[in-house]
Amino acid sequence: MEWASQLCENRGLGSKMTDSKYFTTTKKGEIFELKAELNSDKKEKKKEAVKKVIASMTVGKDVSALFPDVVNCMQTDNLELKKLVYLYLMNYAKSQPDMAIMAVNTFVKDCEDPNPLIRALAVRTMGCIRVDKITEYLCEPLRKCLKDEDPYVRKTAAVCVAKLHDINAQLVEDQGFLDTLKDLISDSNPMVVANAVAALSEIAESHPNSNLLDLNPQTINKLLTALNECTEWGQIFILDCLANYMPRDDRESQSICERVTPRLSHANSAVVLSAVKVLMKFMEMLPKDLDYYGTLLKKLAPPLVTLLSAEPELQYVALRNINLIVQKRPEILKHEMKVFFVKYNDPIYVKLEKLDIMIRLASQANIAQVLAELKEYATEVDVDFVRKAVRAIGRCAIKVEQSAERCVSTLLDLIQTKVNYVVQEAIVVIKDIFRKYPNKYESVIATLCENLDSLDEPEARAAMIWIVGEYAERIDNADELLESFLEGFHDESTQVQLQLLTAIVKLFLKKPTETQELVQQVLSLATQDSDNPDLRDRGYIYWRLLSTDPVAAKEVVLAEKPLISEETDLIEPTLLEELICHIGTLASVYHKPPSAFVEGSRGVQHKRIPARAGSGESAESSDVGQSGPSEAPPAVIPSQGDLLGDLLNLDLAPPTATVPSVQPSMQMGAMDLLGGGLDSLMGDESDTLGGDIGGSPSMGAGLGVAPAAMPTALGIAPAVGGGLGDLFDLGGGVGMPTGSYVAPKTVWLPAMKAKGLEISGTFARRGGIIQMDLTLTNKAMSVMTDFAIQFNRNSFGLAPAGPLQVLTPLSPNQTIDVSLPLSTSGPVMKMEPLNNLQVAVKNNIDVFYFSCQYPLSLIFVEDGKMERQVFLATWKDIPNDNEAQFQIKDIHLNSDAASNKLQGSNIFTIAKRTVEGQDMLYQSVKLTNGIWVLAEMRIQTGNPNYTEMELSIKCRAPEVCQFVFLCYELVLKN
Amino acid sequence: MIHSLFLVNASGDIFLEKHWKSVVSRSVCDYFFEALERATEPENVPPVIPTPHHYLINVLRHRIYFVAVIQSEVPPLFVIEFLHRVVDTFQDYFGVCTEAAIKDNVVVVYELLEEMLDNGFPLATESNILKELIKPPTILRTVVNTITGSTNVGEQLPTGQLSVVPWRRTGVKYTNNEAYFDVIEEIDAIIDKSGSTITAEIQGVIDACVKLTGMPDLTLSFMNPRLLDDVSFHPCVRFKRWEAERILSFIPPDGNFRLLSYHVSSQNLVAIPVYVKHNISFREGSSQGRFELTLGPKQTMGKAVESVLVSSQLPRGVLNANLNPSQGTYTFDPVTKLLSWDVGKINPQKLPSLKGSMSLQAGASKPDENPTINIQFKIQQLAISGLKVNRLDMYGEKYKPFKGIKYMTKAGKFQVRT
Question: Does the CB of A343 have a partner CB in chain B at under 8 Å?
């Protein structure tokens, strides 16, 4: 009893003793109290005081004023006290660099302590003190620790190299730490190997061109050995590193797969997914008729299914990845449909992903089950989910032809429920079904028309109007129905207005006698009473078409429409391949290539699935359809400039397995063909390269196909021909936003250097489209044909978005103006200067090279207006070191005029403030690669001449500041 | 790698932050709060949230959001797995993982987080190793520490971290040597209106509590190992041996751990231990609805179904429910519309039922959605998949350990549609 009561007392004492006491609010003078306690002679009091300091720090209070006092406690043999002081140091060293130097000696001493725990702790902490002055002192102790006899110290030191690299990359290179780190890959201790790999991978991320992780069969073997013995986290690093390796042949590939497969049974889902990545990638190299290939396929399914029984967050990431895997290799999970069935208490983000995969796996064999499920989901509570489920039914109908009828009847059942949003969603998807299977299910139109009044969402209204217009001849009262929509024409959204216009024209062409009045009404509504350029232009086109050539009108408006297919929602094959190489990463969650969103990605390597080194089986491999990159993948999205890309870019050359674009060495030699060519431009000329290009067999085909592809992109244009061309021009003139400043054309390539071809040009950004305006002049005596253009890798990935449209031969003394649309999805390499662009132009005579510089405003995007709060936070977030100051003189603009002018070039003013006779403008700019640039502009308001403006520019990538400033100057002065 | 961690409580306050690299301003969490506001339910916050310069990856555990901040390309699963490990460690150290417990032990928490990650790289995440480095706080130790001035920080080198068996600490000693294994299976199932199974699968785990002296080497064999074709092992299990002989051979960690988890997929025939007869109906134009529910045992291999709990989210239109349970108690929350019925044990002779009426809003139309019924239950001494342990042997040590194996089946996400 006595013991029990004592325990109770202790318990009471215990609760009073907990750390929550440190959370008492900051009283005035608390800092002084702490200071006194820190300097106390009593060890215990000291420690308590440090604990209090740490606790305050944890909750975000500023206790940096105590820095010298805490550092004084550092020289102690009490391990906990030492650790606490180290914790404090890491947090505040940055703000007190001079004080932090006081701690250096203790670190150096601790690095030689007989206790490896202390050595490791010291080297670990030193690396976390992000103060430049200290890093120099760090080098010697670090070098010793990297070669320490104790593996615990070595593995800690390996990570420290990565930390140091983050602070001062040059220092790390100069001190030779990278080589030491590479040596650690062969360390006897697996933990050390894993940490060395992790550190190297992180360093390599900021060093895309270095061959830090130079993988060869020996290192691979070491990694595979370490893989079995290191911690789960180490396994992830090693697997991710392995995924970058390019096996020499299918046997090596198989042996790696065999040694990686056991990782599929790991309890850590990140290990499993990284293993899946390696297997998915290396599998590509295995012959499809190999028994092992089949075994491997079977082994992949269970771990993926198991991931779905984990916590919802894990499920979500797994599902996003499975979405990629089922697109690449549907055979893996084709029997596992049921695990994707939705449980009603799954979080919404899991539900939506499961639904997506269900559709991807839907086939004739399981469609009945899938439809039953989808119908069930359509009665759930969550509106978003219900909508998506209804949409899924439509996608099933389009994907599995045999099921279309069943899908339609399911949709009709759902329409009968009269639940408003279900009906609307159903009508939208039925429209798609009509487009896929024309003249098959029109019997349901009557049912649809019954629900006309309940439609209040634009998409559903537009869909219904489309149906009425398309099947006007079968709907007796089509004119009445459309007329009823016409009453509120001006209140409708653009989508509905456009659809209504087209539908009534269709109706008129089908039943001209009764509907003349209606069509006139809608045309005048669209052309005279509307402010919307799209609507107006379409109205004019129809009007002129109908009045000049009704036959042509019929051909255009009632033309046969291309069938839609399920493919439209598939990921484009090249992107899919890249994403498969990034399974388990953020890229795979967002289904975007890493270059698209990893901020300031300093040159992301585009990864490719290795091509099968064809040894005769290539013919058999064709049964897997779109798998091998060697077979031209079915182009879902028209392949834009790819044809020309083939022509000039060796990277895309036939799969000779010797050109693995992933190998870093390749990146180093980067220039590929063009680079060489440019060198030759500088030096003496060599014709061999040009010869190679000319001889490329794909060239002729490329140019032959390109013009044919154009008309489809324009849609209805070809049927009408010249007459309409004017109209389109007209439309263009009206609709084009008055835009940014465009510099006059300058000569880029003088005729002397290019065998008579003179090229001058400029760059422009019009309505979000980047264009390179070129003037080609033939100053030679012979006709020039077969023009093509290609860019070298450049800082912002500019690349032609289409072929160079010089369709007619250029005769002597003729000049032609061409506008070449550019995209920013090309390969990225940092150029010097940043805005330099190296171009190769080819014609029937030769290949010519020149370089030009584009204004950075070319890549300022239209949605570059930042939210104010975000601006404030970002401005604070960017270190002051990244700020650059500029002056712009002789500007005769006031702040409003300036900000209007800048807005035209996508430099957006977010806020304006007037302080002490100065206008301060806060502006933001977003580059195509997602980098934000923030600016603060100061203009003297008192001065009538406004001769001087001051500009501060802040950006995470400080190298762009200079170029942004040049754009300001250019825009403001012109 | 992982930059920072913020802990956010249910009311949306950041109560702890830890930075492993440079300090990331708290304001980055504003993006998380925006997502939180948009989410209809606390668990609907998307796990990965992009911000202009960072990515936020969060998990929700014990009503606390663990928000990790990353800046470069880091595998999200890696981050999520790590966050789970943080939660497990807190629970292991403090018994519960609550805001109060974390605040009470903030210094230990800070020390732990510092030990778990170094510059964003995982350092020591195994509970065995962590406990060598930082002793868990106990009431007694806190008292002793305050009196004697000693600390929570261990003085030895975490040698386990470097050995071939990094999961086991060295020099373990017990007077009673014992090894217990729990085979626990959860059935996830969706049953349709008519009572037929749409999908059913089993998630099984074998949790162990091993307190053995020295470096014991254990083998565990099964009567029917063929059931286990989809397994995830604790790193201690020798994979080669399993592949070749279907025997689990391992040097166990000290204390509690999950030896393996397995999955019996929907393609196998999964026994469904309970059935539900239901009639939940609303009539057009009437403000009353009927509710009838009867439970019964199905394939239970003669074992009793216990701790049965039925819950169902009734349609929004339902105002109240007036029901009569044949056993147990029921509650209906008129605000959340959640009906739950604590049934207890199912007596096969006298099946439990819940019958009565629901009142609807006057004049409201018949609800569109059909409620789903969620069932929880437990069956002791049965692994519903039929998995049975054959024998457990110990090598490498001389003493004779005490061994025990327990089986249990539970409902996981067991849902009946109506």
Answer: yes
Distance separating alpha carbons of residues B73 and B51, to the nearest angstrom: 14
Interval A330-381: pLDDT, tens: 889 988 888 999 988 899 999 999 999 999 999 888 998 899 999 889 888 8
Q: Which residues pair with A935 in a beta bridge?
A: A923, A953
Strand partners, B222: B389
Q: What does the angle CA B331 – CA B333 – CA B335 come to, to the nearest 5 degrees?
A: 175
Contact A4/B at CB under 8 A: no
Q: Which of B64, B81, B238 to mutate to test the interface with A (most CBs of A within 10 A)?
A: B81
- Kindly give the residue spans of alpha helices, DSSP state H, lying in A817-939: 868-877, 895-904
What is d(CA B256, CA B179) in angstroms, rounded to the nearest whole number?
Answer: 10
Chain B: nearest CA to A739, how far in angstroms? 27
> Amino acid letter at A522?
V
Rounded Cα distance between A240 and A197, Å, is: 10
What is the pTM for the complete model shown?
0.69
Q: Which residue has the tokens 């030492």?
A: A82
Give whole-number Cα distances, B171 to A156, A732, B141, B168, B298, in Å.
24, 82, 21, 9, 50
Locate the chain A residue with the closest alpha carbon to B70. Answer: A586
pLDDT in tens, A627-668: 333 333 333 333 333 333 333 333 333 333 333 333 333 333
Q: Which residues contact B95 (CB under 8 A, 6 or more apart)?
A: B101
User: What Rg, from alpha-carbon coordinates, does chain A have?
Assistant: 34
The mean pLDDT value for A22-33 works out to 62
The pLDDT tens digits for B186-206 are 999 999 888 888 889 999 999
Return all residues near A700 (Cβ < 8 A) that are at least 6 apart. none
Nearest to B73 among A160, A335, A598 (CB): A598
> A880 at the B interface (CB within 8 A)?
no
Cβ-Cβ contacts under 8 Å, B268 against chain A: none
Would you give the distance in Å from CA B301 to the centre of its chain? Answer: 26
User: Do A233 and B125 count as a contact with CB atoms less than 8 A apart?
Assistant: yes
Q: Which residue of A has its CA nearest to B160?
A: A152
CB contact under 8 A, B22 and A94: yes
Q: What is the DSSP letter of B119?
A: T
| Residue of B52, B233, B267 lying closest to A267 (CB–CB) | B233
CA A153 distance to own-chain centroid: 39
Give the closest-approach CA distance of A167 to chain B in angstroms: 11
Structure tokens at B290: 């009927």
β partners of residue B344: B308
From chain A, the residues in CB contact with B22 under 8 A are 94, 130
Q: Which helix (H) or strand (E) covers residue A850, if one does?
A: strand A847-853
Residue with tokens 């209070």: A61
Does the pLDDT at position A221 exceed 50?
A: yes
How far away is chain A from the Cα of B100, in angstroms, using its nearest Cα?
8
> Is the predicted ipTM greater than 0.90, yes or no?
no
Q: Residue B325 forms beta bridges with which residues?
A: B354
Q: How confident is the model at residue A689 (pLDDT cuts 50, 70, 90)?
A: very low
Helices then strands (H, E): number in chain A? Answer: 43, 13
C-alpha distances in Å from residue A373, one per residue of A387, A426, B199: 14, 16, 11
Residue B234 distance to chain A (closest CA, Å)? 6
Contacts of A348 in chain B (CB under 8 A): 40, 44
Dig out the tokens for A222 from the structure: 């070491």
